[in-house]
């Protein structure tokens, strides 16, 4: 029995190593002193761990600023998307109205919108309206990119809450808004949480628009764009580059840890359902 | 999907119950259910609303009662509609319009672009470069998607057969890969394949491939293309594999057992049981991967900007190059429009199926 499973486990180990090694190598490099990084034979364990590279990365020109920019843009976009999506999801999940199907179709189309094809018109519109090089433009774009997915996911969570609960509260004399706040919102909280965190990741990782729309005002860059030009910042200092990349990944990893089991279902609801 | 099925009786029920709740103040800024808002006749403008707002309520025959409540859903979706119109449909339209104009740096600064009909499209379609890029994009998509689907399927089947602890380890590893931000991944891959200190070259030399000593991967077109494929596959497999595995767990074990009793081998079981059961999921994931790979931009731009020698210039990268580096916004827009059209042709079957399934369910 054990022997029969051997090839299977070897294959599993192979998949595990291939999927984990690049991330492992990033973190290990970040912790190794430069002398070890440049050794002729790579050292697979950080034998002389150091925080030097993290100090270099954090102390690099603008790092704190770009970290703040990324956080600000992503968080604002997500809060905005959540507020707008909650209204729309409620209308779709709980109400019957003419145009509902057309609206749903619009959300699906928006969800599959070829965002990459909008780089040029967004650049031109931003330029015409004086929004070029502005974080507010990026915020608006991340809002609209995450909005359709947020509506679809929230609508799914809302539909899972039986309307009878609200109706019972309303029978007891509560208004519809009160019933929603007291009964539905607490039940919806985990859904809101995971949806917003996924939206946050999308905004946090976004590169194409940040790269195309922040051109002259370098202070308004976000982390991904800054990271993409690491060779300008760190030259051939791979330790610092890997430290910066690791720090960039930390928030995303935290989100995944918080969500754990919801990761798969959430992504499937968000990605597969449209 | 099925969650909507019990809705009609539920609504009729609530229509009956909600009459007493109508004493609630109207228009108090609360989202109101059309069935709950018994505020009839208090808002004169409401009478102007089309009477067909809610067919079910019309049947209830409470006349003007439905009218103000009927406006609520429209108010609720208004921010979404306005936002999508201005930030998605307007830019899309603008892109199409620009593709029919002469729009270069001068027009960008001064405005007043002139329409030139199909000139830009003639330019683009007439250039050999464009068709080279189209061919490259199709090859890029095909190679990536085939690799992703084959590896994901094998990985999913493997996970299903693993012991509990190993399964948890592999799935955690896949989730970690999944969680890696695109830009962190591009940075790491550049480090892995670095010519002098990169661990890949070291490993290849150690295995006896001495020609890889100091090999500059990113100076060679084919090598760079291979690295990009590797990166995309590495990033995409976790989603596909975990989703397929989730699908595998829904197949009843009896089906496998009866197939085995009939003497079917592993391949026959996959062809006869697994694949037919998961066909919709396979279709869905394949379509999604086609979309993602086809319009992939960030990875390519961050690592190669389309180089070396255009070896990694796919359509989205090409459009951006033409617009941003050459300031030919008109040609760039034409290329973008054509890109979307090509993708639509590739995916038309998927779109139709999705609207049929999801549109009914919602």
Write a structural description.
The complex is a heterodimer of chains A (274) and B (362). Chain A has 274 residues and is mainly alpha-helical. Chain A has a single domain (62-231, 251-272), classed as MetI-like (MetI-like fold), CATH 1.10.3720.10. Chain A has helices spanning 6-31, 34-37, 52-59, 63-94, 100-111, 119-128, 135-159, 163-171, 176-205, 208-213, 223-228, 230-234, 238-259, 262-272. Mean pLDDT of chain A is 86; it is low at 266-274. Chain B folds into two domains: 2-83, no CATH class; 119-361, MetI-like fold, CATH 1.10.3720.10. Chain B has helices at residues 7-17, 55-60, 65-99, 105-110, 119-126, 128-161, 164-179, 182-192, 199-206, 221-248, 253-261, 266-294, 298-303, 315-325, 329-361; strands spanning 101-102, 114-115. Chain B has a two-stranded antiparallel sheet with strand order 1-2. The model of chain B is unreliable at 1-62 (pLDDT under 50). The chains are: A mainly alpha (274), B mainly alpha (362).
Supply Rg of chain B.
Answer: 28 Å
Number of strands of chain B: 2
Could you estimate the helical fraction of the residues of chain A in percent? over 70%
**Can you count the helices of chain A?**
14
H/E element sequence of chain B: HHHEHEHHHHHHHHHHH
Q: What would the average pLDDT of chain A be, to the nearest integer? A: 86
Q: Tell me the span between the first and last alpha carbons of chain B.
A: 6 Å
Instruction: Give the class of chain B from helix and strand content and strand pairing.
Output: mainly alpha
